Every structure is written in C-alpha cells, then in structure tokens.
Amino acid sequence: MRKWTLLFLAAMLAAMGITYSPAYAANTAFRLGADRAEVTAGDSVQLTVSGTGLLDVYGYEAVVTYDSDKWTFVSARNALPKGNAGESAGFAITPVTASNKVTFAFTKVGKIAGVGGDQPLAVFTFQARKAGIAAFTLSSVKVVHADVTADKFSPALQANVLVKPGDGSGSLSIYGQVNAGGALAVELGQADVLQAIQSATNGKLRISVRPENGQSFRNVEVTLPVDIVLKEGARIREIVVDTGLAVMTIPVDPARGVLSSGSRKLTLTAGKVDSSSLTSSVRNLIGNAQVFDFKLSVDGVALGALNGRPISVEVPYTLKTGEHPGQVVAYFIGGDGRPEVVKNASYRPSSGTVTFKPEHFSQYAAMYAGISFEDLTGFAWAQESVEALAAREIIAGTGSGAFQPNRSVTRAEFIRMLMGAADLIDDQAKSTFADVKAGAWYASAIASAQQLGIVKGKSDGTFGINDPITRQDMAVMIYKAAEVLKADLGTGTSAAAFSDQAAVSGYAAEAVRAMQRSGLIQGMGNGKFEPKAQANRAQAAVILYKLLTLLK
C-alpha cells in the first residue's frame, strides 16, 4: 500500500511518458496554513496546503511531517477544485502514515484540463495530544500536469500551533488504525494518561477512542496504564472509556472495584456480535437488536463475574415513535445462551443510550420490551411504573393481560418485588421464619432480607407471608433496603408531616419521615399517610420504580 501510494501519480501517469518540467515550476510557490494558532489539548486543527502560480495541475502528492508525540493524525482530503461542473470527483489514496510523516495523493480522472492559478490542494486534520508549541512542516509536493509532465518541490514550510493544557475535563482522545478484520486496537502511554490526569478537576478521567479517517469497525480494544491513575489517590474517582461502540465507566476504588492497589494495566474490549452466532431463542427475543460482547482484564487476567464490583456500561439505543423510555431494557446473554433481563438498566434520552451495571462481562443487548396491561384504566398515575417493572421482570401480571392494580399485596409478594428490584436476592440464604417454606417462590427473597436486616418478622416467629402488607411496613422495608444499598435519600422536599403521623407505629416513624422527605412515598391525597391501610399493587409498583430510579 505504501509503495502504491508514494508512486501513485507516477504509476498512473509516468507510464504515459511523464517527464519533469522545470519550466512549469518557475513561478510556483506553496503555503501551509493552520486554521487556528492556539488550541486546547484534545481539540483539532486543520492545515491547508495551497499553491500560488499553479499551472495546469492534474494531480499531486503532498507530504507533511509533525510531532507525533504532541499530535495525532486524523484525516486528509482533497481541496483542489474542479475545472468545470461536469468533472468527476477524481481519485484519492488513503493517507499513509509512518512515524511522524503523512503522505496524501490525489489525481483527476479522464481527459480533462488541469487547474491553474492560486488554489488549495489538500486539507490535513490533526488532534492535539499534549501542551506545548509544535510545528508542522510541508516537506515535499509533487505536482502532475495534464500533459503528463511533473514538478517536484521541497518547500520546507512550517506552521506553528500552540497547544494549551486541557479544560479540566480530564479528557483524552486517541485515534487508531482499523485492520482488515474491522478491529481497532489502541494502547495509551504513561505520558498520555498523565496529561489527562493533570487537567482533571471533576474526578473523572475520560478517554475517547476513534478510528483514523472515520473508518468503520466492529471490535475495539483499549489498553491503558492504571498504576499512574492509582497513585493519584482520591483525585481520580472514575475512568470513563468511550470506545466508539459503548462507554464503560470503571471506578478507581481498590477496596471495592476491579482495580487493586498493585494493578498496572487495564484492557477493555467491546465488539459487535454476529447474530448468526446466537441461539434461536435469543434471536427471537431481541429481533434486530445489536448484541455487544464486553471483556475486561487487569494485568492480563480476564474478569468474567464482577461479584458486585461496580462498573457501568452505556450502549446506543434509538427510541422509536410510540416507545416509552421506561420499557427500554438490557439483556445479559450468558454462556448457556439464555437471555436474562438486567433490572438496573435505564434509558437516557439526552444521550440516546441505555446504561446498566453488569454482573458479568459478557454479551448484552438493549431492546424494547413492549409490555402492556388491559386493566390500568383509571391508574394512569401508576402505568409507567407498572410497565417498567414488568419489563424488568420485577413484577408480573395476573394472567389474561391483567395486572389487578387495586388488589392488595401480601408481605411475601412485596418483599419478593423489593429484593428483586434491589438485586439483593441470595439463593443460598436461609430463613428461620416458621412460615417460610424452603424452595417456595418467595423463600430466597425473604431469607435474603432477613439476613441483611431488612425484615425482622413477627413476635410469633413467622413472617406473615400471606398477610396484606401495610403502608407503614412497606415504608420500613424500603428504608432498610436503601440503607443496605447505601442509597442517598437526600433531604428531599420540606413538605409538612402527614396529618396522621402520630398514628404511625414507633418502629416505622423514622422510615415514614425519611421516605416522605425523599419523595419515595406520598400521602393519600388528604394530607394523611394512612399507615395501617393495606397497600395495593399499583402503589407498590410506583414506590419500587422510584427506588429503582434512585439507585441508578
């Protein structure tokens, strides 16, 4: 490819008898101009190669050298105008980069005249990587004329651009070449990461990976040194890597995260999965949704199960007409090929992405659930919550397209929904409540809640699995679960206390006040909370969806 590019004009035109003609070059000169004299690290600059006194230019080759430590080459394009409206666009070779040099070549096509006078030839785009003054040099230009003669020039022209430190966002953009298999791989150096760290003020180190020349790709691998990040301590709390396919956020927390105090290198991989490799059940479920495969390794050791270590992933999703954001979900596709809904997934309209916290690094897809129930008329205030929870398989209908929103909720039903929404169910947990039968649909949820201190049961040693749950007990369970999850309930609103606050049992008083301030629970429309009234399925759904939203 390199030989073809460098000999591009000669190979096509020299075969026609090309000769070099100093007469053409007598009054020709060149310019190298930058569109900006100053940029900030991470910004782009465009360099235009232009000529004056040009004669009959049919094609050219331009070579620009640059400081590859301070700049990343992004793209090059032709700027030579057409001689007439009917002229074809011509033909350009993909730019060839080698060390600190980039070569770009273009030719017109067909038996047409060249262009003369003062004309732009090519535009090169570079992105700033580091602060400092850096020079670009137009090393050489070869010009080919329509009469198959050519001129060679060595102008050695320079354009200086000042790169200022970053804007405090801790942002670093890296460009890489896509190989023949559609894969993009980049590895950041210590100096690259240090530059971004020094400009970070919000605790986030942001890294953006993009292909040179806007090439399409299906797989991307990003490797970066993390020992230098860990040395910064609390200054850098998160590493945010935008791979161009998905965004992955890695907390910098040796105590709880995937990075330990001795970690040196982190590698993230994202790729588009060919649908033909999926099982028929997965294809039937997701339809045309794109499946992504994610991998993570630290110091060469691959991590599959994350075991509660917090990582978030964003994948693109375009909301279609008539779709409701709450029903956009993500599915985990395990090694056995069975899809499993990710309960914490949420759609972000501002970015057009679905964000979720995976339990495994494997295959995932974002899709629309399309859940609806026929008996929610009169419950518009609860419809979004009901359908969103059903889309995440946290609640279910009662058959024949019904939800029965006004039906009371048993204590077993509610704790099963709560623990599922909070993703706190431990299948190995054991309960000591007399009425909890091992293996029952509610057993693991109740046992997990008991183990975590979310429920204590009744004085007779039972849980009361079939008892309708009261509004105050519902508040207590949610409050305790929020404590386990370390959810920030905040101070919320300054609304007046419920007029029947005195009727709230002592064990529930703190929980009810906290839930009211946070906005997770509301009164019954008359200023009262009605603590001992039975909660119905619609009310439970609204509160649980608020909690789920808070946890995101």
UniProtKB/TrEMBL annotation:
<dbReference type="InterPro" id="IPR008965">
    <property type="entry name" value="CBM2/CBM3_carb-bd_dom_sf"/>
</dbReference>
<feature type="domain" description="SLH">
    <location>
        <begin position="429"/>
        <end position="492"/>
    </location>
</feature>
<dbReference type="InterPro" id="IPR051465">
    <property type="entry name" value="Cell_Envelope_Struct_Comp"/>
</dbReference>
<dbReference type="Pfam" id="PF00963">
    <property type="entry name" value="Cohesin"/>
</dbReference>
<dbReference type="GO" id="GO:0030246">
    <property type="term" value="F:carbohydrate binding"/>
</dbReference>
<dbReference type="InterPro" id="IPR002102">
    <property type="entry name" value="Cohesin_dom"/>
</dbReference>
<dbReference type="InterPro" id="IPR001119">
    <property type="entry name" value="SLH_dom"/>
</dbReference>
<dbReference type="GO" id="GO:0000272">
    <property type="term" value="P:polysaccharide catabolic process"/>
</dbReference>
<protein>
    <recommendedName>
        <fullName>SLH domain-containing protein</fullName>
    </recommendedName>
</protein>
<dbReference type="Pfam" id="PF00395">
    <property type="entry name" value="SLH"/>
</dbReference>
<keyword id="KW-0732">Signal</keyword>
<feature type="domain" description="SLH">
    <location>
        <begin position="369"/>
        <end position="428"/>
    </location>
</feature>
<feature type="signal peptide">
    <location>
        <begin position="1"/>
        <end position="25"/>
    </location>
</feature>
<feature type="domain" description="SLH">
    <location>
        <begin position="495"/>
        <end position="552"/>
    </location>
</feature>
